[in-house]
Structures are given as C-alpha cells and as structure tokens.
Amino acid sequence: MKYDIILAGVGGQGVLSLATVIAAGAARAGLHVRQSEVHGMAQRGGSVLAHLRLSDTTIFSDLIPRGRADLVLAMEPLEALRYTDYLAPDGAVVTGIEPFLNIPSYPDMDRILSPLRLIPRHRLIAASPLAKQAGHSRAANVILVGAASAYIPLEEAFFLAGISDIFGRKGPQVVALNEKAFTLGRTAPEAGQA
Amino acid sequence: MSSHIVLGDEALALGAVHAGLTAAYGYPGTPSTEIMEYLQSRFAGALVAQWCANEKTAYEEALGTSFAGCRALVTMKHVGLNVAADPFMNSALLNLKGGLVVAVADDPSMHSSQNEQDSRYFADFAHIPCLEPTDQQECYDMVRVAFDLSEELHLPVMIRLVTRLSHSRASIVDAPAREKTPPSKATDKQNWMLIPSLARKRWDKVLSIQDRLLALSEASPWNKLHIVATPERKSPLGFLCTGLGFNYFRENLAEMPGNDKVPYLQVGQYPVPAGLIRRLAETVETLVVLEEGYPLVERLVRGVLPQALRIRGKLDGLVPRSGELTPENVRPAMGLPLHECRSLGLASGLPEGSCEELDETALPGRPPQLCKGCPHGDSYEAIKDALAAYPDGLVTADIGCYALGVLPPYAVPETIICMGASIGVAKGAWEAGYKHAVAVIGDSTFYHSGITPLIDAISAKAGITVVILDNSTVGMTGGQDTILPGSRIPALIQALGVDPEHIRVVDALPKNRQENARIVKEEIAWPGVSVVIAVRECLETLRKAKK
C-alpha cells in the first residue's frame, strides 16, 4: 500500500495540522510516514505546499513527484487548483471552498471551482459552517481530514486514534469536538453544486 | 529503545543529546532553527542550548566547550557559516578535545535564503570530515558517530543537512544515551594557540591525517557501493549519488529496466571516497552523478584531462544546475520519461501534457507577504513618505521579515544582500555621492552584524540615517527572543558616538505614520549619522505570548 497526499493552503492557515492528524493515524496503523513541511519565509501568507507519504514499504523521497499524487487536500480552492498538476490520472481532490483573500486579483469562484469539478473524484466542502457546527471555527482542518478520509485507504478507527493522539493533551472536550468535526467532514455534502 | 516521529533537525538534536551533549550554540536560520528549538523545548536545564548574537560567537563558544573537554554542537544555516568562517577554518588546526559537531543546513532552491551555497565545500576547504544524511534515522545516528570521529581525529566534523530533510518528519528509533563528559580542560596549550610558529605545526598535522580521513570514508557504512556488473561486462549506466540525490534515484529505480543490476554508489561521508568511485567507474560505460547541491563530486571526477569514461550530470545540463533535485528532475538522467500531468487552468481544463508543459501563469501567484497589521508595514509607509522629499533618496535593507517590503504596496528597499549589509552599503553609497541614504535593519540583525558597520559610519561621519525596526523578536525564523532587548540600543549607539539629539525612538503605529515620516525626513536632512528606532512588537510573537 502506498498513498501520497499533497497538502495545500496559505501560510498561517494550519496546513501542517492537517498533515499531523493524518500522519498520526497512519502511524497508528503501522505504516511508514514521511511528511515534508514548509517553514520560514514561505510561511508568511504565501502559498504553501506540504507532502505526506504513507506506505507499508520504505519511502525514499520526501517529495511526491508531480503527476503521481493520490490526493490533493487543500484548505482553500485557489491553492487546490494550483497544485492539481501533482495529481495522478485517477487522483482525487478535497478542498474547503471558502477563499483566503489576501491577494488583489483573486479569480471569480466559478472559474476555480468548475475546473476542480472536472476531476472525477472530488469533494468541495464548505468547511467553516461545519466547523462552527462542531463547536469551533478552528476545527475546519479536521472537517477537511474527515472529508478526505472518504478517499484515504485507512480505517476510520485509525483517524480517530490519530485525533486522540494529537488533541489528547488538550483534554477530552477538545478530542470530542474534533471527533465530531471529523464525522461531520466525512459525511459532508458537496458544497455549492451548480 | 523507543521510536519518535521527528523532523530531520529534531532527529539530529536528539542524537546529539544521546551522544552526551554538554552545550549547543547557534543563531536562528531556516532551515536549521528547529535543532536548537527542540533542545530548548525538551532539554532545558539538562544542557546548555543557547541562541547567540551571531554564528561566529556561537562557534567560538562551542570551541570553549571543546577546550573544556566536553561535547558541543553548533547550529546554523549555510550562509551563517560564512559569518562563522573565521573560527570554523581555524578550528580545524586546533587539537580539539571535546567533540565538536557543526550542523549546517543548506537551502537548495533558496526557499528562505539569499543563495544556495553548498557547505560541503567548506568542509573540504577546512580539510575536515563531513557526513551527509539522507533520512531522519541517519540524522540521529550520524551525529553520534560525528562526535566520536571528532574526538578521535581532534577535528570538527560537519553534518550537512538540506531543507527537505531538516523539515521532513519521519519515525526514528533511538539508542541508549551516553553520559556527558565531565569538564577537564585541554592541557596541550601549544595546540590551541594559533600563533604562526605553532599554527604551521598544526597545519602539517592536519595535512598528515588526510589519508586517514580518506581511509575512513572508503570504509564508511554510509558510502555504499552496489555493483553487479564486472569490468568485463560493463553496465551501460551507473549512478553516483550524494545526499538526497540518492533518495530520488531510489524512488525511480524500480522503473528502470534491469533495475536490480544497475550499479550505484551512495556517498554519505566525505572526503570523497575516491577508491569506491574508481571501482564503480570500472563497471560502467556512462557514469551519471546525482548530487544535491553544487556539482562538487562531479567536478572532481571529471577533472580537466580527457578520459575514456563518459560522465554526465549537472555540468553538461542533464541534471538542473540550480535548485534542489526532485523525484522528477532526475528522471531524464535515469532514461525515464516525465510523468503525465493533469494540467488544470482557470475556468476550464487544459489538455493533458507532460509536467514541463504546464502553464502555471494561468493562476495568480500568492507570494509571501508581511502579516496584516505588521509594524514593518507602518515603518515602510513612513519611510516612503519621508523620501518623497528627496528624489536622490536611496534605501538599503537587510535580512528578515522586512525584506518582504520589496513587494507592493511598499516596494521601498533597493538592496538586500546579507546580515548587516544595509548599513555598510548605505555608507558606501553616501560616500559615492548619494547624500540621502537610509538603511533599514531589524533589531536582531542589528545585534548580529549591524553594530560594526555603524561604527564605520560614525567614524567616517557618514550622513546616513539608520532605521532600526525593533519588533522585539527574531521574526522570520519563528519568533525567537532577540539576544538582548531592543531597549538597550539607544544607550549603546549613544556610547558609540551617535548624537543623542539624533537618536529618535518612535512607536511604529498606523496613527503615528505622519509624525514618524516627519521624524525620518528630519533625520535624513541632518548631515551626521542618525538613528530612528521604530518600536512595536511582532504580531505573531504577541499572539503566541497570549496563548
């Protein structure tokens, strides 16, 4: 088993926290994990890209080759579209649909979402309202992990174990909130279907 | 034994602790910063783990640890080693007592740097061993061997990291920890004092053990030769891989025809193992060099004289000469096609094509930028307003978050070169005839390398205006504490000789923009050295402190 995930978003959005939850779950499942992160200047409000590789055999490269990723998981739709060149032909895309507006020429939403919908396996998720429903706007990351879990070949129990590993030290309430966010994301409806 | 999921930087830090580390010194710099942060967050109190004024002072403090007989780690980014080059080069001539490991993190592709210099050249220059890990486990394991080697050879040992390993996370298994060495200072003082007569002896000694360093490389478990072909039946292709070049080679190897018979050499310990390279070369018709960084090994094996063996790599353009290697850009060198890519633009799908044909310009870029409400933005606005009165005005800037002021809407700086350069460059331009020169520098960068050029400016009575952006933090690297509070700068520069009337401390607040612009304008007009200190705490640091 080998599963390669490109994580995308804007510096400061918490892209790495997405990777951390999935990586913790994969580690619980006994898989090899390599997670390449972005630190430093590139984090300051710019486009960020992280690579997460899961495998039951040795992983050599920290980077996923373009054209080979199984999943692009993004916090934000423009960044999802930016990195679709990483997708393998049968790859999937999961993204939050709320734009992160910190550039002057952000394109019309329809021009971003319509090409994403051309990808046969896609989930475009309105993460913010679901996060509020789960109990906190910052749970949007875990909403997206839940949405992505529909594609990632890991049993649900491992994701929940990963959530417990990552949020456990913040107390049972935070774990429960994130478990709820995961479930809401996993069953989330397709957003804004034209 | 237990396992840990850690960054490459953290694996190195943990390995150093388990190797009996007494003290670590460094200056923050991407991608090396997390080595020290890990030590400080996990081992505070158990050992010394300190940020220093700059890489040179860090290196010298580590030499003190070694002189005292204990193990020391010094951490920095590649360009930091330029700052520490003086003690680094000279330390190779000392008869080190406690092990000294220099962990230098290079940044090929310049993700967060001014250049992509390859620190292996520095190890070669100093005639010391260099270890180059390819994964987190090697980061952990190599540091212990590096300390042992350093004490065996009495030389510093470099561990060269690169961004993709420093900032990549994976699981490692640890080993039983070694105790710290109790202090017991070196007693052979003639081996620690580099006056010419003694330094000559030490240099001869360094040269005399170079054969031993080479023998250690030839036998190193990290220099792995994989040969199936023989000199009689040569393989058409063979690979010489260093650093992460090996990872990308292995990533793609399974797709090569007859992949189990492809000969290769993985180099992880330097000096370059010449004997192993010769053995590899005997079995191949064409030797391809896949090297993360500059073509150091490739230049060596090519030489300048004609030879029968065909050598390919960065120098003939088969592999990109600039930027980091990737699992894709080594494929042509392995005779493999690029992967097909789905290339989506705005509004509609574009035809599928190879990765090379993608048109990324179809999407608006999202470059890094100053945080919303950042005090540096207010300072740049004030400087911009002040300079409106001076058509011959000139702004030099420095290394830090405020380098992001090159982008609109500010677009103020005209030079950004290296730590501390803003002040010296402004002085030089002033002396050449630009009488309204402004140097912009952060508080941490000022303490790192800004004081000495300010001394030059004061000495020369250069009429420049220095604007120190005091945000009370080392911002770009994640908000480490500045080595000393910025509040001490006014007294310091006054003692150096800046007229107290022309040391202006202002609050970098949006409501003060007009007033601050007026003050900067006044100081630009004044013909002596003036310093405006714009104070307001970094928003990120403030946010973290409130957590």
Secondary-structure map:
The complex is a heterodimer of chains A (194) and B (547).
Chain A: E1 2-10, H1 15-28, E2 32-36, E3 47-55, E4 69-74, H2 77-82, E5 87-96, H3 109-117, E6 121-125, H4 127-134, H5 140-148, H6 156-167, H7 172-186
Parallel strand pairs in A: 1-4, 4-5, 5-6
Antiparallel strand pairs in A: 1-3, 2-3
Helix pairs in contact in A: 1-5, 1-6, 4-5, 4-7, 5-7, 6-7
Chain B: E1 3-7, H1 8-18, E2 21-26, H2 33-43, E3 48-51, H3 55-67, E4 71-77, H4 78-83, H5 85-91, E5 100-106, H6 120-126, E6 130-131, H7 136-153, E7 157-162, H8 163-166, E8 168-173, H9 196-208, H10 210-218, E9 224-226, E10 235-242, H11 244-253, E11 264-267, E12 269-270, H12 274-282, E13 284-291, H13 296-302, E14 310-312, E15 340-341, E16 353-354, H14 375-387, E17 394-396, H15 421-432, E18 437-442, H16 443-459, E19 465-470, H17 489-496, E20 503-507, H18 513-525, E21 530-535, H19 539-546
Which key terms come to mind for this protein?
heterodimer, A: alpha/beta, six-stranded mixed β-sheet, 6 strands, B: 547 residues, alpha/beta
Quick rundown:
With 194 residues, chain A is α/β, with parallel strands linked by helices.
Distinct helical segment count of chain B: 19
**What pair of chains forms the biggest interface?**
A-B, 55 and 55 residues
**Runs of chain B with pLDDT <50, length 5+?**
349-361
Distance between the termini of chain B: 34 Å
The major sheet of chain B is characterized as: 7 strands, mixed
